[in-house]
Amino acid sequence: MVRDLTVGKESRLIFLFALPMLIGNVFQQMYNLVDSLVVGRFVGTEALAAVGVSFPILFLLIALVMGMTMGSTVILSQYYGAKDMERVRRTIETTTIFLFLSCLVITAAGLLSSEAILRLLRTPPKILSLAKLYLTILFAGMVFLFGFNSLSAILRGLGDSKTPLYFLIVSTLINIALDLLFVLVFRWGVAGVAWATVIAQGVSFLLGVLYIARSPKYEALHLDLRRMRFDREIFRHSIRIGLPSAVQQVLVAMGMMALSRIVNGFGTKVIAAYTAAGRLDSFAMMPAMNFSIAISAFVGQNLGANKPERVKRGYLSTQMMSGVVALSITAVMIMFRGSLIRLFNTDPEVVRIGSQYLLIVGSAYLVFSLLFINNGVLRGAGDTIIPMFVTLIALWAVRVPVAALLSRSLGPDGIWLSTPIGWVVGLVLNTAYYMTGRWMRKVIVKPMAQEAQVSSSR
User: Fold this and answer.
1) pLDDT, tens digit (0-9, with 9 covering 90-100), for 83-132
2) Which of 63-77, 118-132, 136-150 has the largest mean confidence?
3) What is the mean pLDDT of residues 130-144?
4) Mind spelling out the 3-state secondary structure of 101-148?
5) Distances in Å between the alpha carbon of 32 and those of 51, 62, 262, 415, 430?
6) What is the pLDDT, as a whole number, of residue 450?
7) Where are the domains of the chain?
8) Confidence band, pLDDT 50/70/90 cuts, at residue 453
9) 29-33, 123-127, 260-264, 317-321: which has the minimum mean pLDDT?
10) Lowest-confidence segment of 148-152, 314-318, 408-412, 428-432 by average pLDDT
């Protein structure tokens, strides 16, 4: 259902809003996790490395557009908080048109450039063809990934984090079944897990579209394709808010590619260990990322409703909830790190390297949690410039140079150490900005409401 976040106990609202997203993202991450588990255990170390080396390229091409839609989500939550349903509908129509056109461009770019980027990243020759095959299939089905993620983003802006979950659970189960069928029975290898992912994402997207089209409670989402129009004013506001986020996402993606280039120089086993540990890392980071999305929607609605006191209380309670979860995950990752890596691959060297990654990076999950909650508050207010610059400094001025430098003397451990160092720098910078309170002046709805009042008085 659509959730009003402007009334009720802040901590309870944020937790209940974040929980379905967390469960949903657990299932969504199962796509990558199961792909890696199946190829790592039943195809081999090279196949696991091929899947892992492909991920930064996918993330780069998706990050730009998904970052741009963040502006639409912020505006959507503020309009909904102000109960301006006409602008809610126009925002949804504008976002849908933009995403459709962007998806076509991203798909073409991915199909044309994947091999060249793989070579740029120093992908070992013996896994290059496997990685290219995996990417080609995933880019062919990119429309399903974009469709479902954009639908979920719109629903979150309206305060609904439950509806996408049910379809995602079904889709994940289909993905697992097809992974096993295509790899163990049909022996399709890397191509099998790629096709399983595309088919499962397609099912998830189509189920979501059909359900919403037939449900009266989502009237705002019942779009008439023949009458849809592109609102330039809303798009302009969306770009102003979303462009810094998009740039930030691309900077993160390019940072991942730079780090992957360093990792790839150490050979297939280090790539495989990095892939396995990275899949576990993604699960560990999900609670903080979902609390960040929840606090962003909460801030957007409450600033739109002119309730800044609720924003501060919600921020503190979210930091506390997310921090407790982060510390719990750190304990699990460190205690069971060897056993967790063995789920993906039993090669002793892969297990040793992956375990060391979890020990170093897992010790800093609390820092990551605090960092992401701060970013969520700033984005919810529409202030996306500062998070962009913080990311630029923490990633490109700290993490990548430190990884390049320390890897020369410490090997892969130097790359792993650069991650918590970058997080600490980012946390110090965005906490300092949060304390200034300037981000609360960036809200979109309030100035527009005042302008409307002036116009009506005339």
Assistant:
1) 888 888 888 888 888 888 888 988 998 899 999 999 999 999 999 999 99
2) 118-132
3) 93
4) HHHHHHHHHHHHHHHHHHHHCCCCHHHHHHHHHHHHHHHHCHHHHHHH
5) 9, 15, 22, 22, 31
6) 46
7) 10-449
8) very low
9) 29-33
10) 148-152
How far is Cα 277 from Cα 282, in angstroms, rounded to an integer? Answer: 9
* 8 A C-beta contact, residue 256 and residue 281: no
Sign of the C-alpha dihedral computed for residues 259, 262, 266 and 268 taken in this order: positive
pLDDT at 419: 96
Buried-state track 327-366, b at ≥16 Cβ within 10 A, e below 16: eebbeebeeebeebbbebbebeebbebbbbbbbbbbebbb
The token pair that represents 397 in the structure block: 């001025």
What does the alpha-carbon distance between residue 350 and residue 41 come to, in Å, rounded to a whole number? 12
Residue corresponding to tokens 């699960």: 283
Burial class of residue 224 (count of CB atoms within 10 Å of its CB; 0-12, 13-18, 19+): exposed
CA distance 26 to 165: 10
Per-residue pLDDT, 17: 86
Q: Which of 364, 349, 272 is nearest to 49 (CA)?
A: 272
Q: Angle between the 400-410 and 412-436 helix axes, to the nearest 10 degrees? A: 150
Cα-based distances in Å from 156 to 2, 153, 230, 300? 9, 5, 21, 11
Query: Which amino acid is located at 385 in the chain?
Result: I
Contact 214, 17 (CB under 8 A): no
Q: Using the structure block, give the residue that is written with the tokens 């609360």.
A: 440
**Where does residue 217 rank: exposed (0-12), middle (13-18), buried (19+ CB within 10 A)?**
exposed
Using an 8 Å Cβ cutoff, are 61 and 45 in contact?
no
Read off the pLDDT of each residue in 393-417 and give the average, rounded to a whole number. Answer: 96
Q: Determine the pLDDT at residue 2.
A: 57
Structure tokens at 405: 């430098």
The DSSP output letter for 398 is: I
d(CA 162, CA 97): 24
Please state, in angstroms and rounded to a whole number, the distance separating the CA atoms of residues 95 and 294. Answer: 20
In the structure encoding, which two tokens stand for residue 173, read together? 């189960």
